[in-house]
Amino acid sequence: MTLVGWLQISLLFLAVLLVIKPLGLYMARVFSGERASLSPVLGRVERDLYRVSGISPEKEQSWLGYTLAMLTFSLGGFLALYAMLRLQAYLPLNPHGFPGLPSDLAFNTAVSFVTNTNWQNYGGETTMSHFSQMAGLTVQNFLSAATGMALAIAVTRALARSKVATLGNFWVDMTRATLYVLLPLAIVVALAFVAMGLPQTLDGSVTATTLEGANQVISLGPVASQEAIKQLGTNGGGFFNVNAAHPFENPTAWSNYLNIFAMLSISASLVYTFGQMVGNRRQGWALLAAMAFLLISGVAVTYWAEAQGNTILTAIGVDPSLGNMEGKEVRFGQAMTALYAAVTTGLSDGGVNGMHGSFTGLGGLVPMFLIQLGEVLPGGVGSGLYGMLVFAILSVFVAGLMVGRTPEFLGKKIEGREMKFAMLAVLILPLVILGFTSVSAMLPFAAASVGTAGPHGLSEILYAYSSAAGNNGSAFGSLSGNTPWYNTTLGIAMLLGRFAYVVPVMAIAGSLAAKVKSPASAGTFPTDGPLFVGLLIGIILILGGLQFLPALVLGPIVEHFAMLAGQTF
């Protein structure tokens, strides 16, 4: 580790910190229906969209109505994208003449982008037409992110209001998230990416002459626009197969910086929006403090592990002073690769600028563990916030048991109904991840897709299902996932990780919205101070992490100690 590396990391987090309050306040005004800075430009467009679609913005929905609207919208998006991918050969803007996707790959991809996972069992530049990339994948990058934001705002209203039966209108919240937040920011970031050298063209390819005098055909396309919403919406799906390690998708250190900044900006700012809308900004900062502590800890451990190098490579003559550079781009180095890896997995982004499977055992453990914590650091756009609120509810319940008082969070009593739904949500991830991992490790045809023997092979499977159920989308890379088994089971894991999780969360929101919001008293456990932050971190680590410890011991932890001993498998 170097001082320069830590300075790069610190400046990035400082830049994010500077935008949290202004962007958070702006989003609070947008979702509260107040006049925002872009209202004079976009207000008429918003009203016209409601008029054309027959939506009454004043009509609010119950938690069940809100959830059903979200599920219906997601189902429609899945069917449209699935049909587009299957019929790709007959659609326009297909300069390479790519055929339609097989049914299992089309299912996996459609589910992946609708759930904001963006797991990719295909090479983008060798599989997808420009039409599929733009009208299919990029559109879902906007809509799946807007859906997550809408759900987070609905849960926020449940805690802000008192004794009501409604949580807002899904169609309005989703429209505002897209129109006022994602679209304007994506335009700005896309133009910045173009200035940094990312292609933005409808040409299919360009031919270059190499230093050896040979001709090389290099794929092109509308990369900058997809890259912008990929990061702002914490989607992660790359235009190219190697994602943000590709020089056309992430050419310089500055574009790498903007990638990470864009990932964090909306997700972190939404936590401030939460504090503003519930009338307790300190509560928003408390949640952000817990997120930041765990995320920065993950960055530090990953950076340290990769800077130490690999004793096995050192034994064959590789200079240990460079650390572990396997699977990393020289233009980014260890510090920015470690930062990218921790941020993309602390969020539910899944974009990568290095090969996670080439990290050391401990370095690869951290990204996997951050996903398994529930994608709440600060998590995906919207989904991270409502995931963190589930942990907050669990934390105040534990605090109430310790002091013998009825647990409350922001004036709402937490009772048996909320706890049952919270535990149901928390148990979804381990059930899906460990269940599918154990079955895949035992089935010969599933195990045949593993690229590496021993504990690293188990890590490949465990990481894949963690990434799918956590709606992350990154991978250890050497797992050959484009098979009927993995396309189907990973798709199911994505569906359960998104929708089986959010339905009980919305049920909690409906229950809390109907309760009277009581003012704080002398006996109220404060949830906006250091004591609560520490308790919240502990609950996240215990409930979100320890349930995966036995599997992690058999995979990356064994690999770490074997590397220290100079052993290979």
UniProtKB/TrEMBL annotation:
Determine the domain of life of the protein's source: Bacteria
Indicate yes or no for the key word Ion transport: yes
Keywords on record: Cell membrane, Ion transport, Membrane, Potassium, Potassium transport, Transmembrane, Transmembrane helix, Transport
Topology relative to the lipid bilayer, per the entry, is: Multi-pass membrane protein
Q: Where are the transmembrane segments?
A: 6-28, 63-85, 137-156, 177-198, 257-274, 286-305, 385-403, 424-447, 490-510, 531-554
Q: Where in the cell is it found?
A: Cell membrane
Q: What does this protein do?
A: Part of the high-affinity ATP-driven potassium transport (or Kdp) system, which catalyzes the hydrolysis of ATP coupled with the electrogenic transport of potassium into the cytoplasm. This subunit binds the extracellular potassium ions and delivers the ions to the membrane domain of KdpB through an intramembrane tunnel.
The family line of this record is: Belongs to the KdpA family.
Subunit and partners: The system is composed of three essential subunits: KdpA, KdpB and KdpC.
- This protein is called what? Potassium-transporting ATPase potassium-binding subunit
Per UniProt, what is the name of the gene that codes for the protein in this document? kdpA
